[in-house]
Write a structure and sequence with these properties.
Elements lengths: L1 E6 L1 H5 L18 E7 L25 H7 L11 H10 L10 H15 L1 H6 L9 E3 H12 L4 E6 L5 E10 L6 E2 L12 E3 L4
Antiparallel strand pairs: 1-2, 1-5, 3-7, 4-5, 5-6
GO biological process, one term: RNA catabolic process
Function: May remobilize phosphate, particularly when cells senesce or when phosphate becomes limiting.
Family: Belongs to the RNase T2 family.
Length: 199
Amino acid sequence: MATAVMQWPGSYCDTKQSCCYPTTGKPAADFGIHGLWPNYQDGKYPQNCDSKNPFNPDKIADLRSSMQKNWPTLACPSGNGVGFWTHEWEKHGTCSESVLDQHGYFQAALGLQKQVNLLQALTSAGINPDGRSYSLSNIKSAIQETVGFTPWIECNTDTSGNSQLYQIYLCVDTTGKNLIECPVFPRGKCGSEIEFPSF
Ligand code: 5GP
């Protein structure tokens, strides 16, 4: 199985570490992909599974514009995304290479992000990126109702120390195509009310 991880850019950027917009410009105010992480049923992740299969941008040339839009890098210094995608493929992607080649891996992640449409799931339940606080259980229910599966929510803290919605985790089968119920959830560190910052 694997876990699809989506990040809210506003919560990456309003922290102490801050962020840098990609060289291609400010990303859309939407959940971007962080990665697709193959993992075991017990929640552990294998890592860096094949150093002989390095990331090769030529293999995903046809996906590049979609990647720039949907899988933007926010780390500093500003990059064009290749560094982030290289890291994700080499650390995580290589661990499912028997099922998904490089093109298949990135395509699967893009497909999942489109399928789940997390921002729409939240805003249609009145949960908007407006800097206000929302209950964690309402956030989870809104996603469970439209996506059909329970997500795990990861929080981080802004510069004032408020707990906020940072990343959303959804479990998928080994093909990276079908959502499944998560067999285990990591321990949470969100408050019961969390902020949804603007971006
Ligand atoms: P991971 O959590 O996938 O193991 O590691 C994420 C790595 O990718 C970090 O070293 C981080 O610096 C880099 N990175 C580049 N851009 C981003 C981004 O937009 N979000 C996150 N979370 N990490 C990024």
